[in-house]
Amino acid sequence: MERTRLFLRAGAVALAATVCIGVVPVGAAQAGVRTVTAQADAGAAASAADWEKVSAIVGGIYGEWRGDAYGGAISNSVPNTALLGNGDVGVTSYGAKGQKSFLISKSDFYSAGDLKGVFNSGNNLTKPLPVGGITIQGKPDDAASEPNLAPTRSAVSASGQHDAFAPALAVNGAMQNDANGYGWVTGVGRTHWLEVSFPEAISVQRWVVKNDGAVRSGYSANNTSAFRLQVSETGGPGATWTDVSVVDNNTADVFDQNLEQAVSSKHFRLYVTNPLQQSNTDANPRARIGQFELYAETKAPTAPEATVETHEKQDILNATIETSMALGGVPVEMDTWLAPSGNVMVTELVSKGDRAVELEVQTWGKPGNGSYPVASSVEDGVATANRSTFNNAPANPDSWRSQAALATEVVGAETTVSADSAKGMGLTTFTLPAGETVQLVTAVGGGGKNFGPDGTLLTDDPVAEAVAMVADAASADRLAALEGEHADWWKDFWSASYIDLPNRPEVMRYYYGAQYMLGSTSREGELAPGLFGIWHTTDNPSWSGDYHLNYNFIATFYGTNSSNRPELSLPAVDAMLSFVPKGVQRAADPAQLRRINKGFVDGRPDLQNGIADALLYPVGIGPWGTVTDDNYLSEALNAAYSAYPLIQYYHYTQDTEYLEEHIYDYLKKAVNFYDAWLDKSGDTYTLFAGYNEGSWATNPAVELAALKSVLTELIDASVVLDKDADKREHWQGILDKLAPQPTSEWAGKKVYSLAEKEWKNGQWVPLANPVPGDGNIIPLDIVVPGGQLGYYSTADEQQTARNTIDVFGNNAWRQINNFPRIFNDAVQSRYPADGVLANLTNTIKSQIQPNLRISDGNHGVEKIGATAAVNNMLLMTDQGVTKVFPNWVAGENASFSKLRAEGAFVLSASYDGASNTVSEISVTSEAGKPLTLAVPWGEGVHVVDSSGATIATTLGTAPNWSSEITATFNTVAGESYTVRQQGEPHAISVRNGASTPETARAGDTVTLTANAAADFHEFAGWTGGGVTFADAEEAETTFTMPDQDVALEATFASTVPVLAATARQQNKLSAIDFAIRSANGKGYTVYVSESGAPGSFTEYDAKYNSKGARLSGLKAGQELYAYVVYREGGTVVEVTSTVTLTP
């Protein structure tokens, strides 16, 4: 990222269910932009109320585990245990009985490999790797630290082995946790043996068998249940073996036994008679031994352990992992969180026991692969560990080696620190007193391309960086500040928007779990998450954990913008832009074009020199312009198809600066490719490409839609930015001459097809099956990301889309590629909402994991993308029209707050299932664009801004759906609006004042203004029935109009006593009679006014007698207003009432 995009979300400041508080985005207060001031008190109240609501919703959704099995933690995909993430560092919960681990990965800890992009090439792959982790456990006793003698053997043999799981791996003393297993795995059978021989006799008094459950959490069913330790004088074939210890009915992941007396021999054997648990009915039983260990000394007995069931909770509201368990036999509780920036993980560890316990924290780099070396050291009294990646292309100037480092410090206890560099493990030991609390602080440094091709360090030293970070964090004050930043970040995240579907708990559980995954794995300014986010626990992530461009990568971000979190989609934009230089090179290389289809390119003389200033992307890319899967699979669509995050970011933010600086040139280059690639020989242009991996076809549906999308966006952007006006006609001409989306007849219905025709057996033929037989909903990628079919497409197009879904059959809803796609396709195709939700719910129930992620056994964070379908059921924009609850279930309540619509509008609304009506709609405009809303109440709407002023609207109809009324109104950037059902206006009668407006509809805000107070009077208050004044004691106030006429009055009070007075005409004199104090008129002054308006009265010379004042010289026929003031010592004592004189 070259700069940071700042979003000032109305939702992050004051979430309002029905009324938006107007805010001004940064930079909006300038010439021509209206500044809107929010009412702070109302905003604070709304914020508190809405945070209470969203925290109640999200707080009730969490992951939960019991027991010591961390199934799915060690995974080539996304782990299934509790997860933390800040977009750069990923934390995976792991452990065993009496042991708690946090596995740490980092988004930019990438191995270069050989940079050739050859799929499945092992360590030569460009791929993300795990860094290592920390493990917390009771401090081992001295005997437990005795050396394992098995690795000193001179020979090892076995009854057999499966694949590469050789017997030597089980006695190397370096067992690895691996999702694919580790150690010795036998052939199929019940009886197996592993023999270990030594050059000299050894004395053994303790033996350990680490089973498959110790290698892979969740695989305890594979633990050996019956086995024996045996010795022999000779060993080898035909030897006689003597039982030393016989074990039946073992269930433990780690069997650890002291012998009653030491046994001495050169030959030891592990003899297995039942390789599985009694409950495991696997028809092909194998023994799986992660490690077989022999010790000279016994393991000392430990203090009685507390009976504590391990319990863990993933609190997604607060982004913490809460753990209760026993460490060193003492019950403890842990609360673990990850700072939003700075890459610091904190575990608060609290003793719940009644005795002190010695604990050990291991800080380690992931061992077991010589291509990725580990090391450890003690730096400034801090335990560190580091791991490095593999550069097998040092001659390539783009190559690198990455190193990441961990540093751990304990705050609140005296520690002893040591390191074993060979193992890449640092050790920190301390005593935790009963009832006391400590914080374990782990910093993650390094990552990225920190060593150049020649091994030169290009950045700060990763170990020094981690040590400096942990030193900065490891104080009570700094930890409190970091925890506050963490809490604030997640509060802001959840406040961005929320939905409430009270009748759909499974959908809510998925939705908020997916939002948590998104907020954890993607952050602006960090590398984009690959297929499995930022959580990597093995060295072999499936598909290299890359950016797979045939839907998987971009699907993660389908719901990001509509969820009002557009900044979280920017890493995807950056990933696509970072490959542009390589994409241009590839498009210009005719050899690369031939890799798409050699025969097609060879038959096109115009393509023999490549395509200049264009884009060609392979199917798999990584960060920094790398290639992970260098194949095209007969398709050229990857750059255009995966332009979707760029296009959507602009649609939802209207950020024209970003459009010009980053997106426009990408669109132009994507179009340039097809401008040359298309066959323009006919009246209608023909696109040749694959309709699926490895096929060849005319006008393949998905690539055709992708081309139309980038063409349309380029033309629109050219107009917005006033660029390339001379090219628009040419681009429009291409768009106009493209073929329509292919359709065909299938199962008696018109459906969208994969392509027009395919090349098979040397000829062009109709597709044998116009829809994929595996249920992959490929033809409807014309909806998302293709953008060629939507909610306001024609009724015929909509029906064809629904037919397409139906002919796939019920299994399509659960097909593993379809989760982020088919539900969104269905919603936008107006597929019945109850059917969409029923299928979504069924899929969620069958595939949701304890950590709330959806897993089909293959795919990863792409499953987040189905949040778009949920959002679109509640709010959708298509062809310039925004509609609330466009596809919702009649009779069911639903509400949403602060969802984002195209055009940079943020909306809130609710749906009442009892009456099947929509509430008023609140809208905040960020970019000041006109808004066209589908009217949910029939004809007409009433729109008011934040001041209550009515906004003019223009009625129309939706594209292709003339029955749907629309209302369009202009907006101002930063202003908020309320849209209500239009009702009949009511009369407002105001005495001694005025109202704005003079008539109003129920729900409108009306402003009252009192007349100016008469001289020697002041405003007293408003009176009137049926309304509630904002402040009845203010001369200018507001009220909300009820559904009836109202009569109101402004009242006033005198500031001095008022005497009653009357006026009469006496011959040529005008008399004002009142109770005068002195007939000589001393202290009295008469004031007259032609208008009677306050402040307009002037002094008039008058005579006085015992009845009052007498005025002469007044013009006959001129009506005047007058009153008399009496003063003593210059102070007004009393005044008369105002009278009217008619001389």
UniProtKB/TrEMBL annotation:
PROSITE patterns: FA58C_3. Residues 144-297 form the F5/8 type C domain. One of its GO terms (molecular function) is alpha-L-fucosidase activity. InterPro entries: 6-hairpin_glycosidase_sf (IPR008928), 6hp_glycosidase-like_sf (IPR012341), Bacterial_rp_domain (IPR044060), FA58C (IPR000421), Galactose-bd-like_sf (IPR008979), GH95_cat (IPR054363). Residues 1-28 form the signal peptide. GO terms for biological process: carbohydrate metabolic process. Keywords: Signal. This is F5/8 type C domain-containing protein.
